[in-house]
Amino acid sequence: MKNNKICALKKTTDFAAIIKNHQVFNNVIFKIRAKPNRLGKLRFGLAVNKKNFPKAVVRNLIKRQLRQMIQRVEPKPIDMIVVVKSNYINNKFINNAKFFNEIYNFIHF
Predict the structure, then answer these.
(1) Which of 11, 66, 84, 109 has its C-alpha lying 20 to 30 A from 56's C-alpha?
(2) What is the band of 2 on the pLDDT scale with cuts at 50, 70, 90?
(3) What are the Cα distances from residue 33, in Å, to 19, 21, 56, 58?
(4) Do the beta carbons of residue 25 and residue 96 sit within 8 Å?
(5) How far apart, in whole angstroms, are the C-alpha atoms of residue 32 and residue 109?
(6) 3-state DSSP call for residue 64?
């Protein structure tokens, strides 16, 4: 079942608006740039760097896993860009999900 409170950012203008005015939340696996929105939805964008993950198969796997992690959290009315660091590939999915939940729960406005 699809959650109507969560949607993906696809437009370059949306990404630029977050990058222009955001707060940064870091840990060893993720860097999240976030800002509040008035839509009452969690909107997210994913940034998986080609430099850190040269193979498209690995980048797509990471993006699928991130979407799964985001679907499992309680939606907050924020816009966020999730940047994945190179340490992601060294951990299992369960550990990465714990790191994501830890940093996501720390976000507040």
Answers:
(1) 11
(2) low
(3) 7, 9, 24, 23
(4) no
(5) 14
(6) helix
Burial 4-40 (b: 16+ CB within 10 A, else e): eebeebeeeeebeebeeebeebeeebbebbbbebeee
How many residues are recorded in the chain? 109
- Cβ neighbourhood burial of 100 (10 Å; 0-12, 13-18, 19+): buried
d(CA 8, CA 47): 12
Rounded-to-integer distance, Cα 71 and Cα 27, Å: 20
- Copy the structure tokens of residue 59: 């980048």
**What tokens appear for 49 in the block?**
């760097």
